[in-house]
Write a structure and sequence with these properties.
CATH architecture of the largest domain: Orthogonal Bundle
Radius of gyration: 22 Å
Strand content: 5-15%
Strand order of the largest sheet: 1-2
Number of domains: 2
Largest sheet: 2 strands, antiparallel
Order of helices and strands: HHHHHEEHH
Low-confidence stretches: none
CATH superfamily of the largest domain: Winged helix-like DNA-binding domain superfamily/Winged helix DNA-binding domain
CATH topology of the largest domain: Arc Repressor Mutant, subunit A
Structural class: mainly alpha
Mean pLDDT: 85
Distance between the termini: 39 Å
Number of strands: 2
Number of helices: 7
Shape: globular
Length: 177
């Protein structure tokens, strides 16, 4: 039975074109964009990883956020962010300040050392986009971005719908008892 199941799965996969799968293509494209960003950042001697650049960019527009909120924005585990922030704080890129409303919490802020490097971070991003979108007309670039924003909106709205459906199922199950 197991061998038959594996043969069926193999046959289905053999006929599936992963290169035309939106999930596969988006993930692979994001991976390549990230890899190129890292290469460019190293070439410019930024002294920051892509993850550190992301932290700085998010903090620049969300200064005073706590680590948990920043971890949510970055979609990473809070413990992973804590280690990243520890290294960045030691290097003088960010600082933690006490939260006036909660003695246990700390708020995150960009240090003065980081402000001059934002232009370089943005330049690396511009170069990355230019390479990725080479040969695209401005209309095609706009259309691609609009379509990707629609995909993101669908998935965000879909998550809310899934959560709502789950809550409704739980309520119905509770009523049935």
């Amino acid at each position: 039975m197991l061998i038959l199941s594996l043969l069926i799965i193999y046959a289905l996969m053999a006929n599936y074109d992963f290169q035309r799968s939106i999930g596969f293509v988006l993930h692979d494209t994001a991976r390549l964009l990230g890899k190129r960003y890292d290469q460019r950042a190293r070439a410019r001697s930024l002294g920051l990883t892509r993850s550190q650049c992301q932290v700085l960019v998010y903090l620049a527009s969300h200064e005073g956020i706590n680590q948990s909120g920043l971890a949510d924005l970055l979609d990473i585990e809070p413990i992973s962010l804590a280690r990243l922030i520890d290294r960045m704080e030691q290097a003088g890129w960010v600082e933690r300040r006490p939260d006036p409303a909660d003695r246990r919490a700390r708020r995150l802020f960009v240090c003065g050392k980081a402000k001059p490097i934002f232009d370089q971070i943005l330049a690396v991003g511009r170069d990355n986009r230019a390479e990725a979108l080479a040969g695209f007309s401005e209309a095609e670039r706009d259309q691609l971005l609009d379509l990707l924003l629609r995909v993101r909106r669908n998935l965000t709205d879909g998550r809310a719908l899934t959560e709502k459906a789950g809550a409704e199922r739980e309520a119905l199950a509770a009523e049935a008892k």
